[in-house]
């Protein structure tokens, strides 16, 4: 089968899991390609044309403004570091997709992490070429393609049971396909002496770790960069680290194992989504203290603690202190995390088989 993955982002867990998934599918004999978007699109003309196209469609139903974006669809040379899988990285992947529909001629397109208007265009382009389109839901926003746009996808996949159930409630049959994680690249024997938050963007509430570090100078606290940070926010976090001796802001690390080499507790304050870092940490027996939101709650198991979604900073600090200080309880959570990360549901072989079965239903 010829499978084309299209991702609207090129940073974070979604594109990383997409490329890992593509490589494993290629090893199974499929022809696979990936196109992903630049996380920092440039220029002023594109946003202006986007607003115009949306207004025209909403007021008149006309879709001809789509043609205005074709000049933005230049397709660069593919990367060559992904083995048999060609990976294109471009500013606007939705505009470059028509080129790949003609040249790569996929049997199915699997799209994730696009905003609503680009996804409308992807649906129109695939329908024009007669190519089935699968939506791979990885974020809460992906529900808007179903609940707001009402697009007719040929297949709906979801990387969490929460998103799958939401799609089902909206009238779409969905398949629960967890994100692939290359666990061989993350397993470490951690020295277990830091408490770590990966991706300290504002929405992930890094101020909780600032408060903990200020109150507990005996706990080394790490803010691990992952996504690009704005210059102002980078400066703000750096100022925290300069003021609090046991708080460290770390630059992004290329190899996942380097992230977990000294982590005792992973903090998952993420307000939504099913981040791959939970499985990565638990695979090395590192417990996770996480926000009690649906997608996280379903993957923590006994290998961590859940903190109420509406908990304030003080409640979070107390929960982290309990998890850190309870040596006996920590050992139980660590063993449970190690076991939980090896459940059949998240093994690559199981995920690949379930995905192939779903894709063959629409791509044959």
Q: What are the SSEs and their pairings?
A:
Layout: E1 2-7, H1 13-27, E2 31-37, H2 45-60, E3 86-90, H3 93-103, E4 108-112, H4 116-129, E5 133-137, H5 144-147, E6 155-158, H6 161-169, E7 174-176, E8 194-198, H7 207-215, E9 221-224, H8 231-243, E10 247-250, H9 256-260, E11 263-268, H10 276-283, E12 288-292, H11 294-300, E13 304-308, H12 313-325, H13 327-340, H14 348-363
Parallel strand pairs: 1-2, 1-4, 2-3, 4-5, 5-6, 6-7, 8-9, 8-11, 9-10, 11-12, 12-13
Helix pairs in contact: 3-4, 7-12
Strand content: 15-25%
Helix content: 40-55%
Total number of strands: 13
Helices and strands, in order, run as EHEHEHEHEHEHEEHEHEHEHEHEHHH
Which strand order does the major sheet show? Answer: 3-2-1-4-5-6-7
What's the end-to-end separation, in Å? 8 Å
Q: What structural class results from the helix and strand content? A: alpha/beta
Low-confidence runs of at least 5 consecutive residues: none
> What shape does the CA trace take?
globular
